[in-house]
Records
---
Amino acid sequence: MKPKVVCIMQARMTSTRLPGKVLLDLAGKPVLVRDVERVRDCKLVDEVVVATSTIMQDDAIVDALAEHLPGAKVYRGSLDDVLDRFYHAAKEANADIVVRITSDCPLCEPELIDQVIQQLLDDPDLRYSSNVESAGQGVRSFPRGLDAEAFRFSALETAWRNATEQEEREHVTPHIRRRPQEFKSANIQSPVDYTHLRWTLDTPADYKLIRTIYARLYPQHPKFRMKDILALLEREPELATMNVAVEQKEVKI
């Protein structure tokens, strides 16, 4: 019997650098809706749950999902202890494998997410799979904004019970990624290094780029993918300079 794979997408309205970014417009729908639409294209994801907080500002997230994606599953929990929010959302969904996608990634790549999940399905001893940095395996090679992590519920539960550092509670997976001896891990690598490309949504400059990408590609090809974005940037290289000066907030692993 195939394990139940649940993607949990964390979202909040109180982002520090671009408040309300998850509800900014992308080709007629909020960023968060575009996130969910793309993850729903994954062949290996059984369910998508948006995990937001219980604060009043995040009521807008629930309302937007009800308007644009009736029936979308939402879990509400702690604002600051995102690990706790993730754990309870996954437990409520009866997840065997948890996929973590953040809501500032409206260009996420369904086929890449499936590759990350497939590693866990292929190796029963594997507890964590990703295309991001971890202490045990691999480095980042894809554009920032295509980050995908998948891990067994048992690994999430262990982290939830044992993580004590504020950074580990806020960013969900550092407790796992820092302990390769305890959590066997694997990494998906791109054959080409694309780490100079920034496709995540943290600042107004990021939004300008992503909004332009959607405006160029979505009307003709709603299911556009990484290869289409790369082709666009090759045709219009000036687009990639829109957010080149943005500094990424890093989590030390």
---
Amino acid sequence: MPPYPSVGNNDSTRLFYDLSASKIHKLKLPETRGVDICGSSHGWLFLQKGQVVSLLNPITRATISLPLFSGPLSTIGIVPLHAINPENFFDNWEAHEYSISPTDIVMVRKAILTSSPLDRSCIVFVFTYSVWSLAYCKIGDECWKVIEFEFDFPWGGDFCDITYSNGFLYTVSPFAAVTMYNLNNRSRTLLGGNVNLIGIHLVEGVSGDILLIHDRPIYVNGNLKETEHTVYKLSNDGEPVWIEVIDVGQNVLFLGSDYNALSLSSANLQFPEWGANCLCYDSVRTEKWNPEENFDSWYNHNIKLAKLDNGMVTDITGDLGSFQVNELWQRSLWLTPSLL
């Protein structure tokens, strides 16, 4: 979905660029009028309007309601890495510490599903700006369950991204410290860090491995001209550390704006000319910059394909037009269509 701002966010039209047909489809989705589209997962969109959240399949128009953010909450405690008495660490923590009043602002930064929401075992995770950072629910639950924990880092709850793989939730900090959470036994494991990166994304690879994508914007005279990307994976030898890689096997990585990223197998794509081991991304450039008011600035964009082994970058769409970033603009994100 390319960026698509509308005045007051009152337009129900949403744009979908079809890579296989090389064309933009305009879909009328009244369910998206006046709401924020916070992410996509397993072919479904996560919608938010204030404290009301839901899922929408843009192909079938099916919708699934989720618990209100201002509704009752429960909690699950994740013990610190070096807790002396982990069994009793959260005895004095109460759910009311995370309660949200109807007037509180909750901004969902990212939402992910563990499977199709039609699967009764599906779990919805949200990563938010609010009195709590992480929460989850199962389809049909009446309330969100807040994941509570003590931060081990001096920058507190400043996560950059989250992802889910093989039954574990992963978070990444500004210094690429990745923590793996086991919600079944309420434990966590620090996997790696000590890489000073700004602009990082966690992605589950097609084989279940965890990849980290670093994007580095290139500015010329204050104008954004291009973005370069580097991919890392955790080493398997000794202490986990991030190592830069130029070979991600059969992965084709897709990167949208903010926290939207996914990985697909090249065997499942109808683009034999692409091959594998590449990154497809929405390339954004400054068209008109207003240094006094960012919301008055204009950008244009196109979709590019970068080969990770040789760095060759190909423009695969041409110019997709201009857009203005405002408080209600639709961020670009990738969607894998689903009829289920």
---
Amino acid sequence: MTEWKIVRTAAVIACTLLSACSTIHFTHDLSSNRQPAEPLRIKWHDTTIDGMIEISPPVNLYRECHGKPWSKVTVEYTFANGLTTALISGTLVSVAPVFNLVSVYSPWSVQTYCSVSVSDLQAAAVSNSD
């Protein structure tokens, strides 16, 4: 029984070390009169068949930033995304082993940073100091 625990622990450690998270940053050069704003809430972007087919529509930066320029978009494959993928894949593989060949569902976290006008920031600072 002790050997089984060692093998299981080694397998968990190997899976943890071999699984990888990924981060991609897209930046948009802003004019000198604009600055990055606080980040918006994180949304998940859903894909299937090992990420080759998108389930959810792309993030509409114009709509997210209410018509203002965006400054940065961060796309990440986080631990939570990997855990979700593993749970769904594990469930499907237990039902039909053919699902072991491909990841049926794989979410990515997307965080958008819009921009704000420097004059708006200065006006807000003046009104807060009153």
